[in-house]
Amino acid sequence: MSSLACVDASLIIRTLVPGPFTDRALALMAIWRRDGVSLVAPALLAFEVTSVLRRCVYLRKVSPTHGERAFDAFRKIDIRLSHRQGIFPLAWELAKRFDRPRAYDTAYLAYARLNDCEFWTADEKLYYAVKDELDWVKWIGDDRP
After folding, report:
1. For residue 53, what are the contacts with CB-CB under 8 A and spacing of at least 6?
2. What gap in Å lies between CA 92 and CA 15, rounded to an integer?
3. Residue 1: is its pLDDT beyond 80?
4. For residue 97, what pLDDT is reported?
5. pLDDT at site 145
6. Which residues, including other chains, have CB under 8 Å from residue 141's CB and lie 6 or more apart?
């Protein structure tokens, strides 16, 4: 196993707000902690997670108290965030290559590629759009070993 794993907001949200694959996301995070795997992501992850948590409270998907606890828990997750300039042109190229409507999803792909590590997501659509060409992209819902 690599000493780095790139994660996206969808996977982190699964650890903070109950939903599909929450148990798997929590188990994966525990394995990474146990094995000393460092989590990395483009800096946009912090804004995405913050925004999604706030939206969950606003839409009453979680209580304000749960939202506060989730936000506090998120801030305690050790994720090395990057503003690395090389992310942007590669994210743009990957968005074009895989015909993605937005480049923020491909920013995670770009950062994983730049760090030569696996990228983990709970975003099924993104996973299925790239899985045939990018074997280092992993979906939390995949049952394959």
Report:
1. 13, 16, 17, 62, 67, 70, 71, 74
2. 28
3. no
4. 97
5. 41
6. 20, 21, 24, 122, 124
Q: Which of 5-9, 40-44, 85-89, 140-144 has the lowest mean pLDDT?
A: 140-144
Asked whether the beta carbons of 76 and 15 are under 8 A apart, the reply is no
Q: Do the Cβ atoms of 94 and 106 come closer than 8 Å?
A: yes
Mean pLDDT calculated for residue range 89-108:
96
| For the chain, counts of helices (H) and of strands (E) | 7, 5
pTM of this structure? 0.93
Residue 142 confidence (pLDDT): 86
- The answer to whether 33 and 39 have CB atoms below 8 angstroms apart is no
Domains identified in the chain and CATH numbers: 4-137 (3.40.50.1010)
The answer to whether 140 and 19 have CB atoms below 8 angstroms apart is no
Q: Find residue 6's DSSP bridge partners.
A: 40, 119
Dihedral pair phi/psi, residue 110, rounded to 5°? -60, -45
Q: Nearest-CA neighbor of 121 among 47, 131, 69?
A: 131
**Tokens 């912090």, residue located:** 46
